[in-house]
Amino acid sequence: MNSRERVLAAVNHKASDRIPITFDAANEVYDTLYTYFGTNSKEQLFNKLNVDTWMLLPGNFIYTPEEENKIEKTTVWGHKTVVKQYSGGTYDEIFFNPLAEKDEISDLKKYKWTSPDIFDFSHFPHEARLHSDRAIIGVFTWGPYFVASFLRGLENLMMDFAIRKDYAEYLISTLSEISASALTRMLQSYGEGIDIVYMADDYCSQDAPMFSPEDFKELIVPYLTKLVAITHRYNKKFLLHVCGAVRPLLPMIINTGVDMLEPIQIRASGMDPAGLKRDFGNDICFYGGVDLQQILCNGTPQQVSDEVKRLIDIMGENGGYILGPGHTYIQTDSPLENILSMYETAFLYRRS
User: Fold this and answer.
1) Cα-Cα-Cα-Cα dihedral of 127, 145, 118, 232, to 10°?
2) Which of 151, 153, 269, 300 could form a disulfide with 245 if both were Cys (CB 3.0 to 4.6 A apart)?
């Protein structure tokens, strides 16, 4: 099998020659690995780690080129971030939500919404051809709920869900139309070579969903169903990113047609791998799973290897599992030797 075949076998719940592997990390982790392997090529790094996926990000995904190198910058959606330092590197922290004090639907009708045409997918077909042996994952934009939380601020949005439902519906519906238009354009004009569509749309904390299942059914399920249907119309698979304790929402997520779930944060409430595989393993492909909260950052290389084997034994049965970090990006507190142990074990280990 090549990498593409291996990943798609897992998505279709079929066994493969080994467990498929994915990778992403903070920029500082990439730099550490580049130095270790003596390369500045992402492709060579992925070859060394035996990674089976390749993600394509649109131009202007978060910032335009004019904004992206500033300390304080405005995103293409209109919220603002500032670069913050921490012990391991830097990150962008939101400090301005443009809809924070605009509580009326009339405010939303006057807001200058982002055009779906701002996202640049023109490089997708060429890059997909260059990496066609891997499973190609195309990103169109963040999910409507995620964007709403950036524009309103999370506390305001939760209050909208509770006491301003008409406002929340208008906001989410407007963003879902933008998302659907961007996705359709990506797949219609630049979708050749894409195997999987990716959308991040975090609904959950470590302990539970951020809002009720009833609100999820009313506000999220309609647009998620629509975006998945567009994706399937072009014969692609849909990968949904939701951190945290997503288990209570999984039946509804599966009913929308979502094919794959990332990142499987196993220390969150209800996210025990064995329970997930038992109850949902026939209906959705799990993607991620290697614990970043304790094992990868604080464990020994042997403990990391043992955990990788455990996850493969539990979640890899009859396909339906792609191994990777359990929080999308490997963070800077993960020692190099642990990262190497994770990927070496994933490549070499076979279920008995």
Assistant:
1) 50
2) 269
Cα four-point dihedral sign 59, 61, 65, 69: negative
pLDDT band at 351 (very low <50, low <70, confident <90, very high): confident
Q: Which long-range contacts (CB under 8 A, 24 or more apart) does 272-280 make?
A: 273/310, 273/311, 273/314, 273/315, 274/314, 275/247, 276/247, 276/250, 276/315, 277/314, 277/315, 277/317, 277/320, 277/321, 279/250, 280/250, 280/254
* Averaged pLDDT for residues 292-305: 97
Residue 83 main-chain phi, psi, to 5 deg: -75, 125
Phi, psi of 13 (to 5 degrees): 60, 45
Query: φ, ψ for residue 87 (rounded to 5)?
Result: -60, -30
Q: Which of 258, 209, 259, 178 has the alpha carbon at shortest distance from 10?
A: 259
**Torsion of the alpha carbons at 188, 190, 192 and 197, rounded to the nearest 10:** -80
**pLDDT attached to residue 352:** 72
Tell me the pLDDT tens digit for each residue of 303-331. 999 999 999 999 999 999 999 999 989 99
Listed in sequence order, the DSSP H helices in 164-272 are 165-190, 213-215, 221-233, 250-255
> Is the pLDDT reported for residue 288 higher than 90?
yes
Alpha helices per DSSP H over the chain: 3-11, 27-37, 42-49, 105-110, 124-130, 144-152, 154-163, 165-190, 213-215, 221-233, 250-255, 273-280, 295-298, 301-315, 336-348
Per-residue three-class SS string for 172-198: HHHHHHHHHHHHHHHHHHHCCCCCEEE
Q: Kindly compute the dihedral angle of the four CA atoms of residues 118, 123, 125, 130, in this order, to the nearest 10 degrees.
A: -150
CB 261 within 8 A of CB 242: yes
Single pTM value for the model: 0.97
The SS3 of residue 157 is helix
Q: What is the mean pLDDT of the chain?
A: 97
pLDDT at 154 over 80: yes
The Cα 188–Cα 196 span in angstroms is 14
